[in-house]
Amino acid sequence: MRLGIVGSGKIVKDFLTITNVLPNLSLAAIATTKRSKAVGQALAQQYGIQRAYDDYRKLLQDDGVDTVYVAVPNSLHFEIALAAIQAKKNVICEKPLVYTVLEAQKLHQAAKQAGVILLEAITNIHLPNFVHLKQDLPKLGPIHIVNLNYTQYSSRYPALLAGEMLPVFDPAKGGGALMDLGIYPIHLAGALFGEPNKVTHFANHQFGTDTSGITMLEYDDKLVSLIAAKDSNARCESVIEGEAGSLVIKGAINTLPQYRLDLRDQSSTSYNYNEYDHRMVNEFLDFIQIIDQKQVAEAERLFSESLTALKILEAAREKL
């Protein structure tokens, strides 16, 4: 994979720290805005990125790039991903993929026509712990109650309280608790249980944005509550409850650091199959393999999961 990165914010800097453990990855280029040109050049020098641009359109014209990692504010995802696809580049787009199901379908159709692969960067469903806990769910018997909690006090929350609207909170840029954190429990619920019959969302609003909220999913046989909070501090724990026992996820939903099975009339057992400390390693190992080996069927499967998550997210956003 010859990767071109669009963006130079927190997630890009986080990603670059793991590139040394990713095989078959060439850091071909990075593109920033003109305002952030110095940041892009500094990152290129630090991590051995071959070329630095101050306009993503220049990166899309680079024949040395075959895949574009779109890591910009949510409001720009659709525009830049579509332009990259039209330039016949594979696309890895940060979560949430786009705002709406219709936008996702347009990107998907454009990718098929261009003969390229479209992927959403969402960490949790690529982790080994996710694979194993999904396999362990039948041990719980029929499942009736689920609570998935991603509470993470935002380092930018004090700035919001002081009256500064940063992109991570700005609704005009796709910010807010639901779009930023809520996508993780939404993706997990969709991947485990599929599309619900009904979606309801309740949000806490401050300074014109949602700082925390609860999404309720109704299925034929179960109720699922999804918590996303950027204005609170809590030790995250999520519980899937069934007639034969429960599965407890210890820690944040985006990293799934470990889980415990508490089966009725049996002792508890804890598990951790994750191989890497950093949450992004497994997803990019998967992406490199999918793109290099042209695993279209796997890309289609993942897009189907992204579409399920977007249906839930879009329905929840209507309640904001």
From TrEMBL:
GO MF term set: nucleotide binding
Domain Gfo/Idh/MocA-like oxidoreductase N-terminal: 2-119
Stored InterPro entries: Gfo/Idh/MocA-like_OxRdtase_N (IPR000683), GFO_IDH_MocA-like_dom (IPR055170), NAD(P)-bd_dom_sf (IPR036291)
Ranges of residues in domain GFO/IDH/MocA-like oxidoreductase: 139-247
Alphabetized PANTHER family for the sequence: PTHR43054, SCYLLO-INOSITOL 2-DEHYDROGENASE (NADP(+)) IOLU
Name the record gives this protein: Oxidoreductase
Organism encoding this protein: Lactobacillus corticis
